[in-house]
Fold this sequence. Notes:
Elements: H1 2-15, E1 19-24, E2 30-36, H2 38-41, H3 47-61, H4 120-136, E3 140-143, H5 154-163, E4 171-175, H6 180-186, E5 192-196, H7 202-206, E6 210-214, H8 215-225
Helix pairs in contact: 3-4, 5-6
Amino acid sequence: MTNKTTKTKKKEDKKTEIQVVDTYSLSGKKVDKFKLDPDVFSAKINKSLMHQATVMHLANKRQGNASTKKRGEVSGGGKKPWKQKGTGRARAGSIRSPLWRGGGIVFGPQPRDFGFSIPKKMKRLSVISSLSAKTKDKEIVVLEKGPELKQPKTKDIAKTLKALKVYSKSVLFIYSKKDENLVRSCRNIQGLSTRLCSDFNTYDVLSSSKVLFSKDTHECIVKRLKVK
């Protein structure tokens, strides 16, 4: 009995393990310590679930444009090439037969939709797994406060990224409220992508080397992903 209780305690400790990270100012200075929500950033990492979510995302982006023409779609071939009998040749009804050069294609590729979906719960858990994986690899960067821009300024965002030593890397910047100035300031920086806290997915997280967000955005992420 004692062994079982110790095992369950260890499992509980793993689940409730709280990750503490440094918070930074926009100038790149360490400001304080911050506790990430353990249910979202220290959860069990499910690799197969993350794989399914990533495959789904890429499949939904895929365009099935490959197309060949069937014998009914190829132009011409309305007239019988030669009479049925008396020529010594094999009988033929149309020059657009699949047997002829330039004729229709039998069972060729046609435009198709490769997309599929997975349940909402699986999507949510895959995002949690991806954030937990990033936390484990120390690839989460938390800002004390997000940038407040009165007008689009790429220079200010680039300055912040350089101060945080994440410039010229693939960075996912998650923000809490719609901010057109922020989006315009970020879109001209190579490797930097921006997502609302309600919009980012597993692929966005895994395809970036660093995930950047503020304390306010942390609350928004937890509110979206945590089960009440």
